[in-house]
User: Fold Triacylglycerol lipase 3 from Coprinopsis marcescibilis.
Amino acid sequence: MRSRYLLFFALSSLLLSARSAPQVTIGQTTLSGRDIQPLGVDFFGGIPYAEAPVGDRRFKSPVLRTRLASGTLEAAEYGKACLQPGNPAGMSEDCLTINIYRPAGISSKAKLPVMFWTYGGGFIVGSSARFNGSHLVAYSVERGTPIIYVNFNYRLGALGYPQGQEAEDKRHINLALQDQIAALEWVQENIHHFGGDKRKVTAFGESAGAMMTSILSVNRKLDKLARAAIFQSGSANSPNVYRASRRESLWQTFVSRVPSCSALASSGNTFDCLRNANSSEIHGAMLASLAGAGEMFPWNPVLDTRKDGLYPDLVSKQYASGRFSKIPYIAGTNLDEGTFFASKSPNSTEGTIRGALTAAYSPSRVSASALDVAINRLFQLYPDSPSLGAPYGSGDELFGLPPAYKRDSALQGDLTIDAPRRMWTEAAAQAGVKGYGYLFTQRLQIRDPALGVNHTAEIPFVYGQSQDPAPSTQTLSKRMMDYWISFVVNLDPNDKKGSQRPNWPQYTTRSKNLLQLNGEDTKVIKDDFRLAEIGFINENAVLFHH
Assistant:
């Protein structure tokens, strides 16, 4: 997907119009952006929204950038990605930058609604440069409801989500969530310079990005920063939530791989040394600790139950007591979420799945025996029958993979994505929150059939950039852009502008309606799939650290 985005930008550079580069003035600084033709979109990128989190600021809360250097700031390209697995040439710790796409030449007084995107990547990988908002903005103009699109970078892995007792004691935790808040605060302070309306911000994201956005709704930070939200395949209760101290061994492994600090790994006093290490040491340690973590996503948000903590309690408890933002939302999932996470190892068996589940949900918040009973019940609800597993609707086909794959896919999808989404929409409906739910079911010809309609499959449709050759692809992509843009502008996806599309009803306690998003069969369906299975997971949310 990234290669397609890079190709698009390369072609766009060749198609620049004759008009001068777009400019925006903030204080004593003139930002010089880029004109993306033939789409008629202005781009401003690589704008620092926080001070560089390096040196003494490493492993600390972000410091909002309130003033840019005087003069002209070249803002025609994305900033560098934050440190993560991959080629370090395109990365830097000085990565806290924000990017804006807007309709070309609009006035600073336009007061357009704003879409604020947080990318996913398991809290380990990701970059704003992978998400090109130009088609979305151009289409918003075409349909007569122009919007501004914003995305940003946040710290990843050990730098974004430090773990261990020391991090917990010193509250150097959930730094990436704080980056997200800082970026939203920057938008509140500055988006009017670009023609945006700070009162009309919709925060949206996918996977980890949706989870982070949803977490801001349970600590109520979102109330002052956005008026609506869109959660694509992720909820606040998707991660298995623990205190940072649970992953003490992970933190010690990380520190031990920083050559200049290795002797302090178990000292409980590592941060001063780590702040003096160079970036290449930090990057190497991030890679080494990830390789030996024994978890797919070890660097996660953590509980912080103090008064102003960003993750104050188990989310299921927050939902049950109505402690969350009551802003309008869209929330949905893809048909086969779990195929993205399931093991494809030829050695995968019921025993290996059981071991992985036990490790993921230990130590139990109830008892080890209660967790064991719950896992036994999960295996009864998700039997070793390929026809019942994911990808759903594929019968007994195993795609050359071990039989356990489809069972594991079903479990992973419901435990991580589908059960949390249903818990959220039911809690929101109970509180009278205006919301809309969806199930994305479009099968893609360009995807591995073993993945089905997998996690992340909907993203190109929202961005108007799907390359799938199926005739219904463009139909569905326009519908989804129409629904999303209409919601951002009107807090309702049914403005009847753009493409013809079915009415999307609200999700309520009585109806529990979802919209099935499919190019050949977009229709209203009931949120009643796998009732017993998902019901069991949500009834035992504390056991599953939800």
Notes: The chain has two domains: 2-320, 329-539. The CA atoms of residues 462 and 481 lie 5 Å apart. DSSP finds 16 helices and 14 strands in the chain. The domain at 2-320 is CATH 3.40.50.1820 (Rossmann fold).
